[in-house]
Amino acid sequence: GDSVTQMEGPVTLSEEAFLTINCTYTATGYPSLFWYVQYPGEGLQLLLKATKADDKGSNKGFEATYRKETTSFHLEKGSVQVSDSAVYFCALSLRGQGAQKLVFGQGTRLTINP
Amino acid sequence: KAGVTQTPRYLIKTRGQQVTLSCSPISGHRSVSWYQQTPGQGLQFLFEYFSETQRNKGNFPGRFSGRQFSNSRSEMNVSTLELGDSALYLCASSYPGQGETQYFGPGTRLLVL
Question: Is omega for the bond preceding A31 within 30 degrees of 0, making it cis?
Answer without folding.
Answer: no
